[in-house]
Amino acid sequence: MLLVSPTAVYVLLLLAAPLAAVFAFSFWTQDFLTIDRTLTLNNYREAFSDPIYRTLMGRSLLISGVVTLVTVVLAFPIAYFVSFYVEPSRKALWIFLITIPFWTSYLLRVFLWKVILGFNGVINSGLLSLGLIDEPITFILYNANAVVITLAHAFAPFTILPIYVALEKIDRSLLEASRDLGESRMTTFFRVTLPLAMPGVVAATLIVFIPTIGDYVTPRLVGGPNGLMIANMIQTQFLKLNNAPMGATLAVLAMCAVTAISLIFVFFNRRYLR
Amino acid sequence: MSIISLQGIEKFYGEYHALKGIDCEIAEGEFFSLLGPSGCGKTTLLRVIAGFEDVSDGVVLLGGQNMAGVPANKRPTNMVFQSYAIFPHLSVAQNVGYGLRRAKLPPAELEARVAEALDMVGLSGFGARAAHALSGGQRQRVALARALILKPKVLLLDEPLSALDKKMREQMQSELRRLQRQVGITFILVTHDQEEALIMSDRIAVMFEGEIAQVAPPQELYRRPVTRRVGEFIGVMNFLDARHLDDGGDKVRFDLEGLGEASISHDQLPFGARAFAPVVGLRPEALSVIYDAKPEPGQRVVEGEVVDLSYYGDMTYYEVQLDGTTQPVTISMKNLATRPVLERGARARVTWDEGSLVVFAT
Amino acid sequence: MRGGWLRIYAITYLVFLYLPVILLPMFAFNDGTVMAFPLKGFTTQWFVQLAGIEALHGALLNSVFIATITATLSVLLGICAARASTRFRFPFKAPIMGAIMVPLVLPEIIVAVSLLVVVVQVLDLPLSAWTVIAGHTLICTPFAIAILSSAFQGLDQSFEEAAIDLGETRWGAFRNIILPLVAPGIIASFLICFTISLDEFIIAFFLTGAEPTLPVYIWGQLRFPTKIPAVMALGTLMLLASLIILSVAEFYRRRGVARVGGNDSGGFL
Q1: Do residues C22 and C65 share a domain?
Q2: Closest C-alpha among B235, B202, B194, B228 to residue B213
Q3: Do residue B250 and residue B198 come from a single domain?
Q4: Domain containing residue B298
Q5: At what angle do helices A106-117 and A144-154 cross, to 10 degrees?
Q6: Do both B90 and B127 map to the same domain?
Q7: Residue B276's pLDDT band (boundaries 50, 70, 90)?
Q8: In this structure, is residue C225 part of a structural domain?
Q9: Predicted confidence (pLDDT) per residue in C128-154, tens digit
Q10: Are A11 and C100 in contact (CB under 8 A)?
Q11: Is A116 in Cβ contact with C23 (below 8 Å)?
């Protein structure tokens, strides 16, 4: 008890208290530099009525959802491959290979995707020189697609690892038992492997979905005007418009939305989580 | 004189009553075992003696001194852990010499003591090995050497053989006994394996649910268990319902289910009990199948059917349903070249030894 | 070759993962300021240029300072929590440990704005390196706990008891047995936290004071096309540094696993 307390106190002071402050702020208003501390629901009213907030919030949740889906679906076969087809002695090497790109500066990785996807970028100049296209394709930069691709890349190791760990934990004799009882390789996968890997899939999903909502770097660099997300607005409210209460309101709403969706997701998967 | 005296030891974990008033005396130089099923409190009791657990009530005397408030590192006991707890980052010699570090011995003497201890457990020349490169049996020996080098008054062994395979376990059993005789200090062994306890111990305490059911030398424990539960736990025992007929002089007469009348001397009755609905216990070897031979004079014979048998090579265990009973009894017979092994369904004539009967109060 | 199509897919996926990483040094050594193909020629001028940028040096020093303090604090807090959670039972253990791990799944911008609100609006303190450290420690501690927990978990509780049984005091057992056994985990978690803090942008951007951190400095440079080749050179050096630090961390982590005689179950993040 004594031991855990410094850490618990730190979290309490630097997380719980600030979160409470944000919550309080969301009910206040600000006029230039003075804070009006009368409790009001005006911020919430504005957040719900102004279409720009609604659009941003809806888009953020949609983009985060798509990013999550794409990332997890792309990552699962990799985790499966490393866990089931790579020799045990080389698994650590594969995992290491998968995590290396993650340690490149996050900003630069996002920036480089801009270079890759851009008008004169790697993809376009490559496709042009191969003669596959006549003029540069533009639907891959400065829109939501670019955000999805970039974030799917950024969160790859975060999804592969939990799924890999869950797959590693599966007792291989269970799969043999399923085959022995008459299931094919494919049906065994759906009746045994996938249900047992679900805890990893659920963890991966949450690990991608939740932080994605809070990212403002990727939308700003590769998203273009139609790829901006709620975090960009929160950032703007705090740092540019100096409207901390509105920013706090949006932060609270974003947090609530994410938590609600995550809880619903976990609820529907509860039977896999024991 | 007893080296350890446990008086009214009580231990609670919250609501859970782990030790319920343990009283026990353990003599100097004795090989003493705590035997019981898992969860009976035997390991807790060992850890109480070692000083890893505080008692909720009661007194632990070690060499006549009250151990209350004496921490584990100040007690004249040393422990061999179930997992052996060989420090993986140290060499074998560093592990064995670990406890001597505080004694500030000159290096040469330290080295000699370590070599002596390793020699004692048959690991001469292993000192420089890395601890994680040892086999299970070798770890066990290092753990022994590490504890014995400190010349404790009492060596505590927490299921030390449970992680070894059968062959290695049997070898270590005899080696531990030899070692105990050689160093002459008290060993207290915790085990759930009744055979191991019988083989190794001078005396055994059988524990159930936080209480000691019986403390006795192996032979007495096997032949005169004080409760049905102890009889059941140690080896195999048949239980037959009995009816008390009368007390005739120094004998008590019972009518046994399936076997008929038996006279039992008073000392076969636990606590001199004359219960009205007693149960009688009979070991498999107290019953025997007679083949073609005529019964000896005075020997009573009952008949039954062999419903099952297990062939062990040297022995055969028969399950025989005696006529007029509902439960089969287990009978063990030594296999001799002249003796056929009966088949399932065969009729068997059975005789029994009255002197081996044990009467239980309920 | 087992795995057939899966192997082909895996290799394609690795190409996707490495695409930006490969481009980074390419543009860093490219003799031209436009980030496009075809490449212009080989040069090391961008690396040379780095040496002359004063603001960059300040940002680097600032980041290293922040990362060092963050890693130290995170590891200390991590040791407390990891040891408490693996060794002891205490009331409300699950909710307390859950709360400590929350920053791992909280959107970083939430951590950033909530600290910003408290520091600026409530406490009315200036933003500085210390506000960044506070935020970074918050997100690094869960990582430290995750690594240290597995280090402490691998420890048989009887190691400590055996040491005490052989005459050590509680503190002696901790110092001579527990600490050496978890030292690799401590080093590994320190290096991980250091690297995370060094690279973190989202929180730093909100909480940094007059002295920017390295990522905040880079963010500023990305707006100027002429500065970008130098940024690429800087990124290449940072990647190199990260890889060296992580290799060292991985080395220690494996040694730790080997020490307590456990099975290696893959790497960390």
Answers
A1: no
A2: B228
A3: no
A4: 236-360
A5: 140
A6: yes
A7: low
A8: yes
A9: 888 899 899 988 988 888 888 877 877
A10: yes
A11: yes
Clarify whether residues C18 and C71 are in a common domain: no
Do residues C235 and C128 share a domain? yes
Range with top average pLDDT, A135-149, B87-101, B111-125: B111-125
Report chain A residues whose CB lies below 8 A from the CB of C36.
115, 118, 120-121, 125
- The set of chains that have 3 or more CB pairs under 8 A with C is A, B
Closest residue by Cα to residue B121 from B101, B137, B98: B137
Whether B244 and B125 share a structural domain: no
Of B228, B246, B267, the domain-final residue: B228
3-state secondary structure of B318: strand
Q: Residue C238 is inside which H or E element, if any?
A: helix C228-259
Q: What percent of chain A has pLDDT over 70?
A: 95
- Answer yes or no: do B203 and B265 share one domain: no
Give residue B307's pLDDT band: very low, low, confident or very high (50, 70, 90). Answer: very high
CB crowding B270-289: b at 16 or more within 10 Å, else e? beeeeeeebbbbbbbbbbbb
- pLDDT single digits (tens) B260-274: 888 887 766 665 555
Interval A166-198: pLDDT, tens: 898 888 888 878 777 777 788 888 888 888 888
Residues C7, C75, single domain; the answer is: no
Domain count, chain C: 2
Same domain, C107 and C150: yes
All residues of chain C having their beta carbon less than 8 Å from the beta carbon of residue B146 are 162, 166
CATH of the domain at C156: 1.10.3720.10
**Least confident range of A38-47, A56-65, B130-139, B140-149:** A38-47
Please name the residue of chain C whose CA is at the shortest distance from the CA of residue B78: C165
* pLDDT over 60 at C260, yes or no: no
Statement to judge: residues C188 and C136 lie in one domain: yes
Q: Give the Cα separation of B178 and A207 in Å (integer).
A: 59
For residue C264, is it within any domain? no
How close does chain B come to C141, measured CA to CA in Å?
27
List the structure tokens of C25: 């040094």
Residue A154 pLDDT class (50, 70, 90 cuts): confident
Helices A17-25 and C108-116 pack at an angle, to 10 degrees, of: 80
Domain presence at residue C69: yes
Q: In the structure, what pLDDT confidence band is assigned to residue C1 with cuts at 50, 70 and 90?
A: very low
Q: A 97-126 residues with CB below 8 A of C?
A: 97-109, 111-113, 115-116, 118, 120-122, 125-126
CATH number at residue B219: 3.40.50.300
Nearest C-alpha in A relative to C197? A105
Q: Where are the alpha helices (DSSP H) in chain A?
A: 4-11, 17-25, 42-49, 51-85, 88-99, 106-117, 122-129, 144-154, 156-169, 172-180, 185-188, 194-213, 217-218, 230-239, 244-268
pLDDT at position A3: 63
Between the two ends of chain A, the Cα-to-Cα distance in Å is: 28
Q: Are residues B281 and B224 in the same domain?
A: no
Nearest to A216 among C2, C100, C109 (CB): C109
**Pair B81, B124 in one domain:** yes
Residue where a domain terminates, one of B198, B228, B258:
B228
Quote the pLDDT of residue B44.
Answer: 93
CATH number, domain at B308?
Answer: 2.40.50.140
Q: What percent of chain A has pLDDT over 90?
A: 8
Residues of B whose CB is below 8 A from C182: none
- CA triple A88-A89-A95, angle to 5 deg: 80
Coil, helix or strand for A231?
helix
**Backbone torsions φ then ψ of C156, nearest 5 degrees:** -70, 130
Question: Closest-CA residue in chain B for C160?
Answer: B85
Given this model, what pLDDT does residue C185 score? Answer: 83
For chain A, say whether C243 makes contact (Cβ under 8 Å). Answer: yes
What is the model's pLDDT at position B213? 93
